């Protein structure tokens, strides 16, 4: 069918197929700003303007654009020709991974054409239908409002956050009396932030670090340039699809792909008969991976609905889909275990009965136990014997999904030397290369893994999920192959957060002194044990030591079930443990008749304390005791609680609604001590710019920009002078990858050291150029110059030209790696105000506050963005996100309508505070920031709904307490609403 | 993906569309927001309803006529709808679907499809809407009749328009959902004393007693919860329709 339409101002004639979508048509026209995030219209990543209206191009028949005007993000500008909307998004930090950004930019365009002065609510609503998993929408909304001002031709103040002040390590001390509180504030929806930091730019010795440098790779993202895995045209590309198991547990007794192979256009069909059987773990961890090796690329047994059965590569996605229907499979159905409490019962079927699976640490496949952990300090039995009061409670947390808007996607091909190139959306390129090598039978040296921009990961891409099978298909066909998950596959065949049942037993003295704390956990790893041991160790090791007690004990059994495997998800075990621990602390305080915050403050860690459990357990081995060298916890609590008015009476204007506030705290780590390693390599160019090659994997967080800031700080230039090239296994040094909050701390330290090495070479050359009287040590690098004490200077460009071309020629460069035995914990406090409709049980979160002690904030705007995004994921965890399955183990939540993540218009007001301390170990005093704010919001919400105001009769101990999340209506049964909540019952 | 979709028809009249429909293995194309998101290998051709001139909103003779190809966005923004029954239809539409979908989805597709939420049909039911089908002769029927046997009515027919009686009577709409922008789990709409309840069964029903008997259970809420919450929502919708202030 011939159609003609206007695309970004130019006429286009195209021949379209009846089932072709506009998204597909645009990609054929080399328009890549429309992204694939789902197939059913929910995510909005593909949205473009048709006739001036934003709509999903994935659902629009291409034939329908005949005669119409289509505009995409490409029309707005180029990286070197940005428009005011682009500028606003970059300056405000409205771009993280950038996958949703083109659609957001178009939404802004549409709004501002019709309404040059939108209100904040209108700005939020214009994003309706465009989901973002990274930002929490705070900064995009700010960007829309700023763009409006710019387009009206009015003046805008620079987006600025004052530079980091340095607090004494414990967040108090001299800093408190010489400076105002060291927090930068930012709110959405509420009144203007009350306590914006008043520190000034003058006097801060740091010029680049600590300032809100806009994302360096932002221009390409706001203009929709082809930056992501799927945004390339590869000649001869085949499309892969996977045949997934319809059964939760079954043996494949016969599989015959003859008919599928005979289908014209099919190039390969692989079943377990066609590839070698090699056991591995998909967990992207350092060698030797501390997860059981219990998977095969293709197996003769399936262990969950969604497990791989076969893989197809064909000329078109349609042919591949059709081929799947032609594969004949017969199954012997086995009894399935869908409830983690039944996994270890006698008579339960054995999920891993194959002889070639290998466990790690303590495990027992015969009893469906993937990993068992214990870590103790002192003797809890003795502690309980001494205690005046013992409280034991059980808590439950659900299975939730990472839900990056870009699904898993990989393209594999053979290069001109027949080496395998894997272009993939991953957090762990180096682990991918090492882990797939034995599976596909190639030496590591014949594999190159490239990570382009990635559209969010959140742990879901710390997994070698599809690279192996895509590579198998390329090796089988000799052709380039693309494999991209659908949204439904993300929910059925990717990874999720381990659900847990957590029992805590606490022994405490009458005066509130903790004597013993014991946490016993049962966790569900699903069908495979990826991260089964390590996620769960964090559940105890990173939570229990938050409160000092002479006797601590943590024990966990992680079991297999016939459900989709769990894995890494931002927070890595801590959100689970923190929910239980923080609820428990309130219950104990309540029984003691103490104020929960007084009780907490009496017992929480302080500077100089040692996390003893971290010595007992670290990536499945003995670890390193961690001394707390900086802690801004008290300041965090003060900031976050004040922001939501904790302790003030909260009254809803509606008689049937009640309001309450809850809060909680958490700590995390900064990298895995003694394991995480990152390398950096830096070289000076003729014009004084630098190439910085790092293994660090920016998964949308802005890590590349932070790396550039660190290098620029040391080298006395601007962040723009540093050209960052990240994570390509052929070109960059090794890095363990983007996980465990390691990037700024570990990779950043490597960059700092590499830059210092290069800076030294620059000083030496500069000293030569400036004459005999000057020594290299005396030279200061600043303002793109090397300056002698007497004020004479040479530019970096002069140094470069001289050293490359004139005399004593050398390439000025620096290289370093970094590993640390210290993992300084960042801390946070999070508070939420909720409104409960007592006639319906509906819970609405009205506002939330997150205050994070992240050491020095390397880039305060980006750090705030990390906090806002994390808190929004935590809001979902506490309030509405939950994977639900039926009695056959089939996921009922397979799209983003059934699995609800927050959208812009419904976001509560969010107050963000960075409480900066100076940590002695991290680069420039930095600790991690991105994970800790996923930890404490869920307990804050759960506590808010049982706060006195909401449930006056809801004695937290008699059953009024929420000991599970999420707080959806599904779990709000009539019985519960009336029985355990007399206040609700009497209103009915 | 509609892997086997190969033919794309653009009929000029409803009769032509119905004739094509009778050929089988075909689907009517409204906005495509449901159809093009399906994984369905049985659809071999689509019938584009856009050329039929069904994109209209006409207020006359005491009723508002809404063409089946009117988008939800146009409907929600139309002045005729803004004033209709206190604007509850517009409110229900904005609650139901995000702006991107409202710009694409049509009224006909929303009523004929199976994935739309409960809000819009519940409100239409309370407002006493009527549906006109072309089969190919026009058949006009009360919305409740259409809902009671939707698949039968739609066999070999298409929706051409929906009529809503104009009323300056107040109306009310109440719902409960997981989060403020999520679709309703249970909702109730009232126009005067006429109440409709959605989310209790496969489709919304008139009156409360019918709704209570059929409550379903799903991953968003249990049947007990639905039964427990529905009376409160009905009370609220009625109270709003009586002019009592609520939120
Ligand atoms: C992310 C998302 C969220 C949504 N949320 C909601 C919600 O909460 N509430 C809600 O109400 N809707 C919601 N919708 C919209 C709803 O699910 C449908 O997609 C939409 O209403 C279908 O309208 P359409 O015009 O695009 O129909 P199409 O996709 O074109 O058609 C849908 C079905 O109806 C048939 N059909 C179309 N027009 C006619 C006609 N005139 N006569 C007979 N049959 C016809 C088609 O053959 C097809 O079977 C949502 C949609 C998406 C994508
Ligand atoms: S809405 Fe089109 S890809 Fe998700
Ligand atoms: S920035 Fe929005 S999805 Fe990543």
Concise synopsis of the structure shown:
The complex is a heterodimer of chains A (988) and B (247). By secondary structure, chain A is an alpha+beta fold.
Task: Give a structural overview.
- The complex is a heterodimer of chains A (988) and B (247).
- Chain A is of the alpha+beta class and 988 residues long.
- Chain A has 5 domains: 2-71, Ubiquitin-like (UB roll) (Roll), CATH 3.10.20; 238-334 and 405-493, Alpha-Beta Complex (Aldehyde Oxidoreductase, domain 3), CATH 3.90.1170.50; 349-401 and 498-628, 2-Layer Sandwich (Aldehyde Oxidoreductase, domain 4); 633-669 and 824-988, Aldehyde oxidase/xanthine dehydrogenase, molybdopterin binding domain (Aldehyde Oxidoreductase, domain 4), CATH 3.30.365.10; 677-819, Aldehyde Oxidoreductase, domain 4 (2-Layer Sandwich).
- In chain A, the strands form 8 sheets. In chain A, strands 9-11-7-19-16-17-18 form a 7-stranded mixed beta sheet, with helices on both faces.
- In chain A, helix 20 packs across helix 21.
- Chain A is globular, with a radius of gyration of 28 Å.
- By secondary structure, chain B is an alpha+beta fold.
- Chain B folds into 2 domains: 57-165, Uridine Diphospho-n-acetylenolpyruvylglucosamine Reductase, domain 3 (2-Layer Sandwich); 171-241, CO dehydrogenase flavoprotein, C-terminal domain (Enolase-like, domain 1), CATH 3.30.390.
- Helix content of chain B is 33%, strand content 23%.
- Chain B has 11 helices and 12 strands.
- Chain B has a 5-stranded antiparallel beta sheet.
- The termini of chain B are far apart.
- Chains A and B meet through strand 4, helix 9 and helix 25 of A and strand 3, helix 5 and helix 11 of B.
- The complex binds flavin-adenine dinucleotide (FAD) and FE2/S2 (inorganic) cluster (FES) (2 copies).
